[in-house]
């Protein structure tokens, strides 16, 4: 029997926001009491789709009328900070953003610290770190089930290191139960970072901008944070070293090896390998995972992130994915670019210069409406019939 229903507001209800809304509207202990959506056509469509009448343009308008228990902030990244601050000031108890948490380190710091200082829970959104099976594996590693952790590697940590790359960093920190203390890296197209900035701010030096665009176009045929390829290593606080391979090896995720096992996450459920067959190939173990009551509701790692946020609100339990995790991911991405740009110089974390930034590709920073991927009201409605 569920007695309490947490009041939830979705702030930013585009493609991913609608997935959050689906999850929150299905759980028996949550109800969506309000939606803030900037685009009026989409606002009306999502209101109808989720049966929510309290519809607002943005967080400020919404919070003037309703203070939810939980606010899921799923606007483009540019608007996270303002929405988080408004929610904290209004007295919302639990907030989540998605990835990347910010472009500038100081903005990520502000988001994390305002929540910490006011005792507000800050969840980190739909990332594989919040998949129940990955949390199980992390627990088994910590309990010593696989012996000591001996090393780790990131594969294909390139293409988009501040967006998709935050998946790798947050899982690596989980599996190794440690923080990243130093990075050293080599990179190609690290100068594209300036170009990424150009996605949102005009580069004043036209010649430099043109040169960067040319470089990007010829090398990659694109202009965003999708071309930076980083290789190098990360020194972890536990003492192990993580190798970074910028391109597929052919794996694309995180490997952690221990005395007895190879633990592999490759954008799917984690896999455990133990021993070798007669041909010298690794043997896949049929690992047991804990029963997750919420599996019936689906939503994979998004479900894990949401349920863990609610658990944290109810019991004070540790979050499966937090704002701090997202901030660390951004910081590592920035540090590796810095190291590569300086000429493979070891860079210690935390970075001293908090004004450093890495702008995500424009879709993430500004959203689909501003970057040629408009979602029509009809598409919102179709989405509903697809799920029914
Ligand atoms: N975790 C993941 O795997 C994952 C996947 C996709 C997107 N994302 C992240 O989620 C965020 C949103 O992505 P999306 O695909 O839903 O984009 P989207 O463009 O489909 O949706 C964003 C929505 O926010 C609305 N909006 C913009 N500014 C607003 C404001 N100030 N107040 C209220 N609403 C506002 C827009 O009108 C739009 O409907 C981005 O930060 C992106 O990086 C994460």
Quickly list its features:
alpha/beta, nine-stranded mixed β-sheet, Rossmann fold, six-stranded parallel β-sheet, Dihydrodipicolinate Reductase, domain 2, 2 domains, about 400 residues, binds nicotinamide-adenine-dinucleotide
List the helices and strands and how they pair.
Layout: E1 6-11, H1 15-26, E2 30-36, H2 40-50, E3 55-56, H3 59-65, E4 70-73, H4 80-90, E5 94-96, H5 105-117, E6 121-123, H6 132-142, E7 149-155, H7 165-176, E8 180-188, H8 192-198, H9 206-220, E9 229-236, E10 241-245, E11 254-258, E12 261-265, E13 271-276, E14 282-284, H10 300-315, H11 323-342, E15 347-348, H12 362-366, H13 377-387
Helix pairs in contact: 2-13, 3-4, 4-5, 5-11, 6-7, 7-11, 8-9
The protein binds nicotinamide-adenine-dinucleotide.
What can you tell me about this protein's structure?
The chain is α/β, with parallel strands linked by helices and 388 residues long. It folds into 2 domains: 6-128 and 296-322 and 369-387, Rossmann fold; 132-288 and 325-359, Dihydrodipicolinate Reductase, domain 2, CATH 3.30.360. The chain has 13 helices and 15 strands. Residues 195-203 and 216-224 have low confidence and may be disordered. Bound molecules: nicotinamide-adenine-dinucleotide. Nicotinamide-adenine-dinucleotide (NAD) binds at residues 11-17, 36-39, 42, 58, 74-77, 79, 98-99, 125-127, 163, 364, 367-369, 375.
């Amino acid at each position: 029997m569920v007695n309490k229903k947490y009041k939830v507001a979705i702030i930013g209800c585009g493609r991913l926001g609608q997935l959050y809304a689906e999850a929150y509207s299905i759980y028996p202990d949550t109800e969506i009491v309000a939606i803030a959506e900037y685009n009026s056509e989409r606002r009306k469509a999502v209101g109808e789709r989720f049966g929510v009448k309290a519809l607002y343009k943005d967080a400020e308008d919404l919070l003037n009328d309703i203070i939810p228990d939980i606010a899921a902030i799923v606007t483009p990244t540019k608007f996270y900070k303002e929405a988080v601050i408004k929610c904290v000031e209004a007295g919302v108890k639990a907030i989540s953003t998605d990835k990347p948490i910010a472009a500038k380190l100081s903005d990520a710091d502000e988001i994390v610290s305002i929540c910490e200082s006011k005792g507000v829970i800050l969840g980190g959104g739909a990332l594989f770190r919040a998949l129940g099976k990955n949390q199980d594996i992390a627990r088994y590693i910590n309990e010593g089930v696989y012996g000591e952790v001996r090393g780790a590697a990131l594969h294909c940590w390139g293409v988009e290191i501040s967006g998709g790359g935050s998946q790798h960093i947050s899982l690596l920190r989980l599996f190794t139960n440690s923080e990243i203390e130093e990075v050293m890296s080599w990179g190609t197209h690290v100068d594209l970072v300036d170009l990424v900035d150009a996605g949102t701010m005009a580069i004043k030096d036209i010649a430099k901008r043109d040169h960067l665009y040319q470089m990007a176009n010829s090398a990659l045929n694109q202009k965003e944070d999708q071309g930076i390829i980083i290789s190098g290593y990360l020194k972890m606080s536990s003492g192990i070293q993580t190798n970074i391979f910028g391109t597929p090896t052919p794996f694309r995720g995180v490997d952690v090896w221990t005395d007895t096992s190879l633990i592999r996450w490759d954008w799917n459920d984690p896999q455990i390998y133990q021993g070798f067959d007669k041909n010298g190939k690794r043997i896949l173990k049929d690992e047991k995972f804990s029963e997750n009551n919420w599996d019936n509701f689906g939503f994979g790692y998004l479900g894990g992130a949401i349920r863990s946020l609610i658990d944290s609100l109810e019991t004070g339990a540790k979050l499966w994915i937090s704002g701090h995790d997202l901030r660390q991911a951004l910081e590592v991405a920035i540090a590796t670019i810095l190291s590569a740009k300086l000429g493979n110089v070891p860079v210690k974390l935390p970075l001293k210069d908090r004004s450093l930034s890495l702008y995500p590709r424009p879709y993430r920073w500004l959203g689909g409406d501003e970057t040629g991927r408009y979602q029509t009201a009809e598409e919102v409605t179709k989405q509903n019939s697809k799920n029914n």
